[in-house]
Design goal:
The chain is α/β, with parallel strands linked by helices. Helix content is 48%, strand content 15%. The protein contains 17 helices and 13 strands. It is globular and about 55 Å long. The structure holds NADPH dihydro-nicotinamide-adenine-dinucleotide phosphate and (2Z)-2-iminopentanedioic acid (2IT). NADPH dihydro-nicotinamide-adenine-dinucleotide phosphate (NDP) binds next to helix 9.
Length: 451
């Protein structure tokens, strides 16, 4: 390929604003809230939906930085500030090569309703970059974060917009981003959440999303008079922050998580995955899951190149409850059929929108206890909200205090979602329950704030 073609290809890659994923998220909400729009004319009169589906602003910028070979690399940075009716914009940053405006619009849109469900004063946003952190040195990550913040700092603030982590952005990256913000602006405030504990992070923020998913699942199963997770085989996808803390909490409640996965493949360990080994491989070595079977010889590693077309073998593993914790659309109709055929009774979404609409339809039709992401994984952003409270009051809370509050919030969300579903004639449908309850809270506040 000649230099001109190479340059054109680079432009091509950056050209598309693929909104399909955003439409998927939007359609689900619109179908769920249709009965509400019909029953209450105010929502149409004040054009709530028309106003909600358009972000307040999409900030897109260049991030030029220098890699370890002294070469200049250029990435695209974004922040989608979707809606700040309930409080400052709030939502994570994702560093992954698949990031584009459409992906961040879907995530930011979902975040509005998720954050509303927590009952905390936080609006909805999402941001990130198409930067791929894989294989980068610590200093490259640091330089990228500094360059990214060089632009982002203009648009955020403790009372304006408070980013946090998501895929590819954990405690380490938040630390570098915070350090850069502090140096550029000469201010020390809670402008990001998920910070390391030593400079203002909340205890339990790293654990919050995964623990919250399990708390929500326990509450849902109890409410629906289903057997608890105790002694049950569970399947989990992903091997990042959310997956590992879901696995940790599953063990604590007596369940047996037997799978996990990353972008290269999956592990099936019939006696339960070895969490300490996983933490060593993913958090310390930052390596591939393939290494797991070098130590745990009784476990099986299946590489993505061996996956059957259209199916993800995590979901053909028999289980009582399944926890998709990797990424969007990772569980499709064929996977849902496999889960149901193997006796799965419960699916709880740790990732954002991991199940396709066809998979969700099957779960709901089959009366599977289904916990949608915006309710089930709200524990992460809820503890981010608690971190903002701690920062604003210059206080630190104990692990036990944050854990108790997280549990209370997850139970409260479960109750709200269940009661809302009942009130709108779709008992047990937590998808509609979550969408209606989240929408209503934001919509009523939008009406009260005026246009
Ligand atoms: P991490 O970066 O810590 O982990 C992501 C995991 O998912 C990794 O194992 C990664 O594999 C895998 N993964 C990511 N993208 C893909 C892909 N396209 N195909 C296959 N595997 C993939 O992220 P988190 O655990 O923080 O996030 C996981 C999910 O949870 C996301 O949907 C996120 O939006 C959601 N979430 C996160 C919250 C948080 O507090 N962090 C809060 C609420 C939701 P590999 O290591 O090989 O890249
Ligand atoms: O999707 C999510 O809720 C997150 N990535 C966490 C957002 C936050 O602000 O803590």
């Amino acid at each position: 390929m000649g230099i001109a073609e190479k340059e054109i290809k680079k432009f091509e890659q950056n050209r598309v604003v693929d909104e399909a994923i955003f439409y998927q998220a939007m359609e689900e909400i619109v179908y769920s809230i249709a009965p509400l729009l019909e029953s209450d004319a105010r929502y149409q009169k004040y054009a709530i939906l028309e106003r909600l589906v358009v972000p307040d602003r999409v900030i897109k910028f260049k991030v030029a930085w220098i890699n370890d070979k002294n070469e200049i690399e250029v990435n695209t940075g974004y922040r989608v500030q979707f809606n700040n009716t309930l409080g400052p914009y709030k939502g994570g940053l994702r560093f992954h090569p698949s990031v584009n405006e459409g992906v961040l619009k879907f995530l930011g849109f979902e975040q509005i309703f998720k954050n509303a469900l927590t009952g905390l004063p936080i609006g909805g946003a999402k941001g990130g970059s198409d930067f791929n952190p894989k294989g980068r040195s610590e200093f490259e990550i640091m330089r990228f974060c500094t360059a990214y913040m060089q632009e982002l700092h203009k648009y955020i603030g403790a009372r304006i917009d408070v980013p946090a982590g998501d895929i590819g952005v954990g405690c380490r990256e938040i630390g570098y981003l915070f350090g850069a913000y502090k140096k550029i602006t000469a201010t020390y405030d809670g402008v990001l959440t998920g910070k390391p504990f030593v400079f203002g992070g909340s205890l339990m923020r790293p654990e919050a999303t995964g623990y919250g998913v399990v708390y929500f699942t326990q509450a849902m199963l109890e409410m629906q008079k289903r057997e608890s997770l105790q002694g049950k085989i569970c399947t989990v996808s992903g091997a990042g922050n959310v997956a590992l803390h879901t696995i940790e909490k599953l063990y604590q409640v007596g369940a047996i998580p037997v799978t996990c996965s990353d972008s290269g493949g999956m592990i099936y360990d019939p006696h339960g995955v070895d969490l300490a080994l996983l933490q060593e491989i993913k958090n310390v070595q930052r390596g591939s899951l393939e290494k797991y079977v070098e130590t745990r010889t009784g476990a099986k590693y299946i590489s993505v190149s061996e996956y059957p077309i259209e199916e993800h073998p995590v979901w053909s593993t028999p289980c009582y409850a399944a926890f998709p914790c990797a990424t969007q659309n990772e569980l499709n109709e064929a996977d849902a059929k496999n889960l149901i055929a193997n006796g799965c009774m419960c699916v709880a979404e740790g990732a954002n929108m991991p199940s396709t609409p066809q998979a969700i339809e099957l779960f709901l039709n089959q009366k599977i206890s289904f916990a949608p992401a915006k309710a089930a994984n709200a524990g992460g952003v809820a503890v981010s909200g608690l971190e903002m409270s701690q920062n604003a009051s210059m206080k630190r809370w104990s692990f036990e205090k944050v854990d108790a509050k997280l549990k209370e919030i997850m139970h409260q969300i479960c109750k709200t979602v269940s009661l809302t579903a009942l009130e709108y004639g779709v008992e047990g449908n937590f998808v509609d329950g979550a969408n209606i309850a989240g929408f209503k809270r934001v919509a009523d506040a939008m009406i009260a704030e005026g246009v």
